[in-house]
């Protein structure tokens, strides 16, 4: 698995001080990615065929974010857990940690720990790993 063999995660700063409002769950990356493709922002990272774009295909503003995640993977430092929610169109939205989530998905990661609002736990049941 290469870069993914010893992944470590830390809590996202977005949830700090608000831990009572968030739940950490392990999600299936493929099912979350399929739902997120309905997002208004998915075109920046995902090709029309559903594949995640290579670094050089990303918009200029997104390339440094992807590179930073790649550097963190290489250095084996912990990554922040992405924060997911449910959008207005009832699809998954990636609030914080989008580059982390999508870079790991591009590397073939099958499951990931993420933070979700406790109020969205019911909506996330279909995405929970295991």
Named at the architecture level, the CATH assignment is Alpha-Beta Complex
Distance between the amino and carboxyl termini: 20 Å
- Let me know the average pLDDT: 93
Radius of gyration over all CA atoms, rounded:
14 Å
Topology-level CATH name: Conserved hypothetical protein from pyrococcus furiosus pfu- 392566-001, ParB domain
Oligomer: single chain
Strand content: 15-25%
Number of helices: 4
Form type: globular
Instruction: Assign the CATH class.
Output: Alpha Beta
Question: Which class best fits the helix and strand makeup?
Answer: alpha+beta
What does this structure look like?
The protein is α+β, with helices and mostly antiparallel strands. It has one domain (2-127): Conserved hypothetical protein from pyrococcus furiosus pfu- 392566-001, ParB domain. Helix content is 26%, strand content 21%. It is built from 4 helices and 6 strands. The strands form 3 sheets. A two-stranded parallel sheet has the order 1-3. A hairpin with a 5-residue loop joins strand 4 (83-86) and strand 5 (92-96). Helix 2 crosses helix 3. The longest helix has 13 residues, at 63-75. The protein is globular. It starts with 8 loop residues before the first strand and ends in a 6-residue tail after the last helix.
């Amino acid at each position: 698995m290469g870069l993914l063999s010893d992944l470590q995660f830390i809590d996202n700063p977005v949830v700090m001080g608000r831990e009572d409002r968030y739940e950490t769950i392990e999600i299936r990356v493929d099912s979350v990615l399929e739902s997120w493709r309905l997002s208004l922002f998915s075109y920046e990272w995902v090709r029309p065929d559903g594949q995640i774009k290579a670094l050089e295909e990303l918009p200029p503003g997104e390339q440094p974010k992807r590179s930073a995640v790649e550097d963190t993977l290489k250095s084996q430092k912990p990554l922040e857990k992405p924060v997911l929610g449910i959008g207005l169109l009832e699809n998954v939205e990636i609030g914080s940690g989008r580059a982390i989530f999508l870079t790991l998905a591009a590397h073939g990661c099958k499951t990931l720990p993420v933070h979700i609002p406790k109020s969205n736990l019911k909506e996330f049941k279909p995405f929970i790993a295991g």
